[in-house]
């Protein structure tokens, strides 16, 4: 009787397992002839652009630079939004909090503004008694200085655009592609009228969004990498065969060189290719070494485009808009990852930015230009944060003034503690002198908040 009950219970358990084995807590039996061992199939690791991007050698200095530049771009977006307001030069923090998603901030607007007192001036509105914000005079001056330099360098901007048109397949470029890298090329905001429309002997607008080169200039037919080759040939006494088609290679610290990598790199450096300004013919991939020559030409064109920019860096997504005009039928991100000694891709700041490695040393541009110098001053002002940065001369004057007060106090045979009073009075006078100026500036227009 007991055995029959047990067998019935066992049959019910087997039936339950057969119907829905997930309802039971019994361990699952692995599939295979040998149930004592777990059989796992070995999978070959994936080798894609994403895996190569994640496993690349990190350059901490360039990553830190792109992080700082993202913060500067965010501040410039806030400055643009504040400048577009017609009511006044300042905005209430309550209104600025609505711009958090527009400028792409991960923190509150009030917290971000208070972290940069050298860029933003926060004050209390004298009438409405709410917190308002305006751009500091130093930062405004640097922005105005950059705009003046961009206007003064219109001829240089025209030369850069002309070089890009000479590299294109048909001597044409889309204006939208130029607009995307306008700031990188140092072009003015109205470059369509001030550059493309002004220099009609060089450019012709075929369509609303297409610009065409009128006449080529043979003086612009030398790429920046060719100037480096000539310098290497003269200074290091290298053979012409070694430097004729070579590129400057600078691997990041900690880069692992695998077996056979040096030989491949040496063969690639000596591989002939069509230079960016030589011709617009497309190399046949099926020819002898055609694929490598085609990729090397694309590397040369991206190298030249980055050399024409102000800060020698461009976002990868914006760089891809030149593929069709330049005749580069390649995966741009794949190509950049294949050449880590020439380009570096930084993933900081929620965007992929390609940087020309040879142009930077210790996070700074080796050959700075006037526009870069002004932008670097803006960045330095942003990186000051909440630190107090008075000028050295002002600090010495404050020190000398306090010392003289102390000496005068002790010279008058005052009691202990009485010499502190004139020092506090001097600081009160300084504060009283500063406050009225802020109130006057804040009460210029009350309708801005």
From TrEMBL:
Keywords associated with the record: ATP-binding, Cell membrane, Glycoprotein, Kinase, Leucine-rich repeat, Membrane, Nucleotide-binding, Phosphoprotein, Receptor, Repeat, Serine/threonine-protein kinase, Signal, Transferase, Transmembrane, Transmembrane helix
SMART domains registered for this protein in UniProt: LRR_TYP, S_TKc
Membrane topology: Single-pass membrane protein
Gene3D superfamilies, alphabetized: Phosphorylase Kinase, domain 1 (3.30.200.20), Ribonuclease Inhibitor (3.80.10.10), Transferase(Phosphotransferase) domain 1 (1.10.510.10)
Catalytic activity from the UniProt record: L-seryl-[protein] + ATP = O-phospho-L-seryl-[protein] + ADP + H(+); L-threonyl-[protein] + ATP = O-phospho-L-threonyl-[protein] + ADP + H(+)
Gene Ontology terms: cellular component: plasma membrane
Broad EC category: transferase
Superkingdom field: Eukaryota
Annotated localization: Cell membrane
Record-listed E.C. numbers: 2.7.11.1
GO molecular function, one term: ATP binding
UniProt protein name: non-specific serine/threonine protein kinase
Natural source organism: Populus trichocarpa (Western balsam poplar)
Lineage of origin: Eukaryota, Viridiplantae, Streptophyta, Embryophyta, Tracheophyta
């Amino acid at each position: 009787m007991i055995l029959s009950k047990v067998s019935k219970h066992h049959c019910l358990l087997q039936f339950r397992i057969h119907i829905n084995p997930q309802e039971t807590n019994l361990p699952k039996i692995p599939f295979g002839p040998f149930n004592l061992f777990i059989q796992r199939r070995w999978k070959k690791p994936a080798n894609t652009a994403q895996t190569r991007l994640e496993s690349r050698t990190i350059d901490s200095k360039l990553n830190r630079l792109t992080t700082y530049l993202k913060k500067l771009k965010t501040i410039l977006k806030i400055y643009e939004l504040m400048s577009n307001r017609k009511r006044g030069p300042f905005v209430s923090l309550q209104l600025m909090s609505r711009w958090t998603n527009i400028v792409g901030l991960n923190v509150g607007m009030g917290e971000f503004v208070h972290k940069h007192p050298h860029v933003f001036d926060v004050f209390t509105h004298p009438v409405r008694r709410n917190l308002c914000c305006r751009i500091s005079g130093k930062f405004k001056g640097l922005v105005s200085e950059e705009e003046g330099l961009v206007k003064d360098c219109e001829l240089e901007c025209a030369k850069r655009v002309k070089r890009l048109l000479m590299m294109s397949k048909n001597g044409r470029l889309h204006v939208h592609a130029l607009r995307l890298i306008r700031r990188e090329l140092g072009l003015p905001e109205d470059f369509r009228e001030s550059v493309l429309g002004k220099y009609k002997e060089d450019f012709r607008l075929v369509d609303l969004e297409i610009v065409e080169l009128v006449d080529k200039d043979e003086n612009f037919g030398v790429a920046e990498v060719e100037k480096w080759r000539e310098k290497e040939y003269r200074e290091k006494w290298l053979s012409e065969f070694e430097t004729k088609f070579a590129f400057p290679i600078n691997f990041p610290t900690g880069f692992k060189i695998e077996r056979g990598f040096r030989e491949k790199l040496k063969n690639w450096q000596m591989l002939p290719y069509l230079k960016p300004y030589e011709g617009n013919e497309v190399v046949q991939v099926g020819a002898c070494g055609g694929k490598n020559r085609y990729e090397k030409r694309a590397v040369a064109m991206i190298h030249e485009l980055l050399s024409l920019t102000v800060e020698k860096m461009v976002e990868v997504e914006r760089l891809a808009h030149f593929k069709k005009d330049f005749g580069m039928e390649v995966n741009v991100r794949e190509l950049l990852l294949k050449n880590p000694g020439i380009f570096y891709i930084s993933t900081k700041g929620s965007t992929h930015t390609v940087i020309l490695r040879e142009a930077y040393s210790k996070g700074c541009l080796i050959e700075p230009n006037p526009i870069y110098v002004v932008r670097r001053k803006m960045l330095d002002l942003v990186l000051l944060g909440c630190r107090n940065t008075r000028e050295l001369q002002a600090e010495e004057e404050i020190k000398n003034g306090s010392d003289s007060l102390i000496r005068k106090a002790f010279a008058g045979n005052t009691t202990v503690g009485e010499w502190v009073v004139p020092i506090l009075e001097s600081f009160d006078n300084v504060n009283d002198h500063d406050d009225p100026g802020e109130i006057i500036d804040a009460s210029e227009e009350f309708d801005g908040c």
